[in-house]
C-alpha cells in the first residue's frame, strides 16, 4: 500500500506509529481494559432494544404522542399469548377453567401489569390473551418474555407468542461462526501462515465486543432496534478483518524488503494506516449523511454502524501495530503455503489485458452492470411483518394462527385517535359512538372496538382491525380513509406500527434524492482531499453508484419478485423494508470507497514514480488485486452468512451488501476502473494547482 496524498495525515500517523512501537504493552493493556469494561457492563446491565418505529412530525406519531400523554400505560409493551386447541373448544368448561388458572399464573409474573379476558376466534379452538407489561418496549427483555410464556403453558393447549412477546434479539451466532470460519480460510490462503491469519480475527473479536457492547449499552439511553446490533456485527466482522488484512500485507512486504521491525510498523501505520483512516472516514461520513432523511431509525442505524467502523479503525491503527511490534518477524510463523503475488499473479495478467483493450472492457463491464441494475426500476418500498418469517419460527406460527382465527388484520391493528374539543364529560358522550360507528363503516375495516376515553376526556381512541395484513399496501389505503374521518368536535389521526411505518416509507421515498446528493458529495470530497484529483473523485463516485444500483437490482429480483427466495429461507416474495435501500446506499457507498482508496493509492504511487498512466494502472491493479480480492471475499462471506438468519430485513442487508461488494471488487475494481483510468490517461490526475504534474509526459511501460 502506498501513501495517499496527505502529508499532514502521513506525519500524524507516523508519529502515532513511533509511539506505539516504543510502548506496545500499554496500548494492548488499554484495549484489553476497554474490552473487559464494556463486556462487564453489558453482563451487568444487559442490551435493551426498542423495535417501535418513531417518525417525528408524522400524523401517526402525533396520534401516538396523544395516547402516551393522556392514557396511562399507553406506551407500555403489549403482547398476546395465543392459545390453540387441537380438540376441545376453548369455551369447554374444563378448558376454560385451565385457561383461568393460566391467566392467574401470568398475572403473577414480574412486570406483568394486566392480562385481558380470553378472546375466542370463530372456530372456538383458537384464542388469545392480551398481556400488558409495566415496562416500555425499550426495557422489555428476553427473560421477561420467556417468563410470561413459561407461565402460559397450559396442559392440552398449544401456546404461542404474539406482539411484544415475540420481540427478542435475533440470534446470529451461526452466521458469525460461518463468517469467521470462511475468513480464517481466506486469510490462511492470502498470508500462507497461521499466525498472520489469526491476527485479523483477534482484532475483529475485540472490535465486536467493544462495538456491539457499546451499541447495547446505548440502548439504555435511547431507542436502539435489534437490527442495529446485527448490522453492527456484520460491519464489525467485515471491516475489522479487512483493515487488519491491509495493514499486515503492507507490514510483511516491508519486512521482506529488509526493513527493521519498528521501522516497518511505523511505515505501515503511516502509509496503510493513513489509507485506512481515510477509508473508514468515507464510511462514517456516508453514514452521517443519513441524518438528512429525518428518519430516527436510519439515524440510529447510521451512528451505531459508524461507531463500529470508528472502533475498527482505532483497533487497526493502534492495537494491531502493537501486536506486530511484539511479534516482529514471527508474524510469518507456522507457514502452511506460499502465495503468489505481484506482477506475475493472475491480477497482473488481467491488468495487461485490460490496458491493451480498455474500450472493450469498459463497454462490456458497463453493460453487465446496467443489466444487474435494471430491476431497480421496478423497486417499491413496503414493510415486512411476522408473516414473512420462516414457517418454522414461533413468531410465524403465532401470526398464522391469529390470521386464521381472526382475519389477517388482527396482526396489524390501527388505532384511530381523536382530540375532543370540548372535552368529553363521560363515556356517554355521543361523539364516542359516532367515532366508533364511522370507523366501523370505512371500507377495508373488519371491525372496530368501542371507543376508549382518556380520564381527562380530551382524547378518545378506537382500535380498528382491517381486512388485510399489515404488509398489504391496501392496509395503508384503509389507514388513509380512517384519517379522513369527519366527526364533529373530534380531530382524527391514525396511529399504530402499520400506519407509522407506512408514513416512514413515504418519507424515505421523499428524502432519498437529497440523501444521495449529500452522501455522494461528502464521500467525493474526502476522495478529493485524499488525492487532490477532481477527475478521480468524480469517477469514484460514479463507480460506487453502479455497485449500489447492482445491489438494488438484486434486492428487487430476490425479495420483491421472489427469484430464488426459497434458496435463502423465504416462502416467496416479501416487501422490501422501506429504510433498507437508503441504509444500504450510505453503507455501500462508504465500503466501496474503501477499495477505491486502496487501489488508487497504489496507482497514484506508481504514477508519481513513473509518470506513465498505463503502467501506473497496470502495476497498481497487479499490486493490490490479491489483497483487495481477499478482503472482498472475506467481507462477502461475512455478509452472505447473515442471509441464513430468520429476519427478512437482515437477509436484505446481507444479500445487498454481499452482491455489491462482489460486483465492486470484481467487475468494477478489476475491469471498469482500470479500463476507464486507462482511457482518461493523464487527465486522471489533473488538478488546478498542479497542472504541470497532471500533464507529465508518459513513458513507455
Helical segment count: 21
The helical percent reads 55-70%
Mean pLDDT: 86
Over the alpha carbons, how many angstroms does the gyration radius reach?
29 Å
Bin the strand percentage: 5-15%
Shape: elongated
What is the number of beta strands? Answer: 12
* Span of the ends, CA to CA: 21 Å
Structural class, please?
Answer: alpha+beta
Q: Biggest β-sheet: count, sense, barrel? A: 5 strands, antiparallel
Q: Regions with pLDDT < 50 over 5+ consecutive residues? A: 340-344, 691-701
Q: Any overview of this molecule?
A:
By secondary structure, this protein is an alpha+beta fold. 62% of the residues lie in helices and 8% in strands. It is built from 21 helices and twelve strands. The chain has helices at residues 7-22, 24-45, 59-70, 93-107, 142-152, 173-191, 194-218, 226-256, 261-288, 296-327, 346-356, 358-373, 394-406, 430-440, 473-483, 497-531, 534-560, 580-610, 613-641, 648-680, 691-694; strands at residues 78-84, 112-115, 119-120, 126-133, 158-163, 381-382, 414-420, 445-448, 452-453, 459-466, 490-495, 576-577. The strands form three sheets. Strands 1, 2, 3, 4 and 5 form a five-stranded antiparallel sheet that branches. The chain is elongated, with a radius of gyration of 29 Å.
